[in-house]
Amino acid sequence: MPRKSWKRFVRKPSRKHKTADAATVPAGWRLLPRHFFNAPPEQVARALLGKILARSISEMLLAGRIVETEAYLGERDPAAHAASGRTARNAVLYGPAGHAYVYGIYGLHYCLNVSCLPEGNPGCVLLRALEPLEGLGAMRVNRGLNENAKPHALTSGPGKLCQAMEITRVTDNGVDLLRADSTLALYDDGFACGEIAVTPRIGIRKAAEFPLRFFLAGHGCVSARGR
Fold it and tell me: What's the CA gap between 41 and 47, in Å, rounded?
C-alpha cells in the first residue's frame, strides 16, 4: 500500500493525552525497535510477552507488562480483520509495522492490536492482558472499581486493558507505538519471561483451532481462561 494512502490513518499525539517520553518512563526502559515487528505475527506475539505498554495522561504514567497475546496472520487467516482484504477500517494493518490498530466490539469495548510484518502485509498481534505496573489508582478509576480492586481485575482482558489505559479508536488508532513522543508506546525493560503457554485463540469461530494464543504460564493477570 503506498505511503500516501496509509498516512492519513496514523495519528500524532493529542493534547488530551500527554506523551510517555524518556522524561517520564523509568530509567532502563528502551523503546522497541521497528525491526522487532517486521516478523511473522506468531513470532511477534511470543516476543511481546514481558514487554511494557505505557502512556502518559494528565501528567500521570500508566503502564503494564504484557502477559497475554494473540497472533492474527493477515489475509490468509479467516479470523483476521484483513481476511477480506484492505478496507477503511483495517487500513492501519497495511501500513508500517509497530502501529496501533484499535477496533470496537459489541459497541462497548475496544481492543488494541499492533501491526507487524513489512508494509503491505496486514499481520497483527492482539494485546489480551497486562500486569499493571504504574498508575494503578488511575486504572481503578477508569475501570469503575474501588481502591481495593486487585491488579488482575484491572487489565486481565483486551477490553479491560483498553478501558484501564483510556485507549479508544478515536484517540489511538494509527498511533506509532515506537516513538518516544507518541501517546502510547512499547518498551523493553529487560524482563526475563518464564514458561510460555500456547493455546488456541479465544472468542472466535473461524480458524479457532490455530494455536496462536500466548501467555505467561501461571500468571495471575492473564484472562480468566488462562488462569
Answer: 10
The continuous run of DSSP H or E covering 109 comes out as: strand 109-116
pLDDT digits (tens, 9 = 90+) for 157-176: 999 999 999 999 999 999 99
Q: How far apart are CA 140 and CA 8, in angstroms?
A: 33
CA dist 7 → 96, 173, 176 (Å): 10, 12, 11
The answer to whether 70 and 201 have CB atoms below 8 angstroms apart is yes
Query: Cell numbers 501528567 label which residue?
Result: 59
Name residue 123's amino acid. G
Contact 149, 93 (CB under 8 A): no
pTM of the model: 0.90
Cβ contact 106:75 at 8 Å = no
Domains, the chain, ranges and CATH?
A: 3-216 (3.10.300.10)
Please give the biggest Cα pair distance in the chain. Answer: 49
